[in-house]
Here is the input.
Amino acid sequence: MMEKERGILTLPNILTLYRMLLAPILYLALIEGMHSLAILVFLLSGASDLADGFLARHLGEISSLGKALDPIADKMTDFLLLLGLISYYPILKILLIALAVKETACGIASLIAIHYTSRVEGAKIHGKITGCVLFCTLFLHLLFTDLPKSLSVTTTVLSLLALAVSCVLYLVRHISAVPRSKRNIVEDFIRRM
Here is the structure.
């Protein structure tokens, strides 16, 4: 679908900003022990995530701003939820660190690609699958404060694998956007990370 630059205050962008406002509320609800509220906020956030993408495509309001803000809202939610859940499930520290590494590496690579292409790329299918796996993992940990350790470990490992695969695929995509004459600089930087 063609991208139309309409304005900042489109309905999809408003829904994305709404999700950004929900993320700290989710964290505060968790650390205050209000699990029912945290579950409700997480479900509202997930529903608004689905709605903003659907509306952007069907109203023809896909924008570079929306493509930039949407993953920021996703990551705010993921990071703050993980921070709130770590006291219940210490294993989630690994997932938090992996998510931070993936997002930092892919964010830097994305900025480099934008520099050379002047385009903000949307999420790819592997990123959406990773988001779904992560959503399910976080939702299970949020829903059950006494999740069996084996299920906690299994879902965490699945999320780690999904993050790793998605990270590699995004890095390859971003590096391929860099002209060949400049790739050595980028490849050297990534090897050092």
About this structure: The longest helix spans residues 149-176. The chain is about 80% helix and 0% strand. The chain has a mean pLDDT of 86. Residues 30 and 84 are 6 Å apart (CA to CA).
